[in-house]
């Protein structure tokens, strides 16, 4: 169990970034609403935002409750019992669930990392967009979340809409379509609950990507706080990849946006 936990702890430290919003979760109720923010992660604890001060949730606390994680998910032990064992149970259970979902989200990553970019005549819009996800994977060292609740947007009717990814408290859309469709994607970014927004444009189908990018910046400026959004135009594309350069630029933009 100790060796198993050490792998889980290492994975949490790798994936959980400062600024990440973790939704409150329990096996009994699922996502009941609300979230908490991660302030920092070090070798001994996860620091969560708690009032005016950060609250340290120790590695030892995580290890103690992780011993009951499988039993809790099977229903053989309840949340009330775990709360008796740790005052941080709500945070720990939510983070363990977040980590499990992040692992599921990362499952397609090898396909994205190793995908060969076929000629444009043999691929559609979805495949061209894979280049942007590949750049994102390289820029974040695989920490971007591509599936699960963090990418969802509730419009109050029907199934949720989705952005392409989240990284920490940043919602990300990757678009290679014509300008009118790109502007529609900006609406999803604006409506996503995460405070920071990154729009990544690929030049595959835009007649004038400079104008499209400036239009999107002007739209985001009307609805987002100053400094809380970026519009990035990649140099490469699905038919002309420039992975190393694009990944370096995206990593710098994400770092700048996280510090906003």
Briefly summarize what is shown.
With 260 residues, the chain is α+β, with helices and mostly antiparallel strands. Helix content is 46%, strand content 21%.
Describe the structure.
This protein has two domains: 2-106, no CATH class; 109-258. With 260 residues, it is α+β, with helices and mostly antiparallel strands. Mean pLDDT is 83; it is low at 107-128. Helix 1 (2-15) packs across helix 5 (89-106), helix 2 packs across helix 5 (89-106) and helix 8 runs parallel beside helix 9. The strands form three sheets. Strands 1-2-3-4 form a four-stranded antiparallel β-sheet. A four-stranded mixed β-sheet has the order 7-8-9-10, with helices on both faces. A two-stranded antiparallel ribbon has the order 5-6. Helix content is 46%, strand content 21%.
Q: What's the helix and strand layout?
A:
Elements: H1 2-15, E1 21-26, E2 30-41, E3 45-50, E4 53-58, H2 59-66, H3 69-74, H4 79-85, H5 89-106, H6 109-114, H7 125-140, E5 152-153, E6 161-162, E7 165-167, E8 170-175, H8 179-191, E9 196-201, H9 209-223, E10 229-233, H10 243-258
Helix pairs in contact: 1-5, 2-5, 7-10, 8-9
């Amino acid at each position: 169990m100790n060796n198993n936990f050490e792998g889980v702890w290492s994975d949490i430290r790798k994936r959980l970034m400062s600024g990440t919003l973790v939704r409150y979760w329990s096996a009994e109720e699922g996502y009941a609403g609300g979230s908490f923010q991660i302030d920092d992660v070090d070798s001994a604890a996860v620091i969560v935002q708690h009032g005016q001060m950060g609250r340290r949730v120790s590695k030892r606390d995580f290890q103690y409750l992780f011993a009951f994680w499988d039993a809790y998910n099977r229903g053989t032990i309840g949340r009330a019992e775990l709360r008796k064992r740790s005052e941080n149970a709500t945070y720990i259970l939510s983070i363990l669930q977040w980590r499990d979902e992040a692992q599921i989200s990362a499952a397609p990553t090898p396909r994205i990392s190793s995908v060969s970019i076929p000629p444009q005549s043999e691929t559609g819009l979805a495949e061209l967009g894979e280049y942007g996800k590949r750049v994102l994977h390289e820029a974040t060292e695989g920490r971007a979340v591509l599936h699960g609740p963090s990418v969802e947007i509730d419009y109050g009717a029907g199934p949720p809409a989705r952005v392409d990814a989240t990284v920490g408290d940043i919602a990300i859309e990757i678009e290679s379509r014509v300008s009118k469709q790109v502007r529609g994607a900006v609406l999803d970014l604006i409506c996503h609950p995460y405070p920071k927004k990154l729009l990544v444009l690929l030049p595959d189908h835009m007649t004038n990507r400079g104008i499209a990018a400036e239009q999107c910046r002007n739209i985001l400026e009307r609805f987002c706080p100053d400094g809380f959004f970026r519009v990035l135009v990649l140099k490469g594309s699905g038919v002309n990849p420039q992975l190393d350069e694009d990944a370096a630029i995206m990593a710098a933009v994400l770092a700048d946006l996280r510090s906003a």
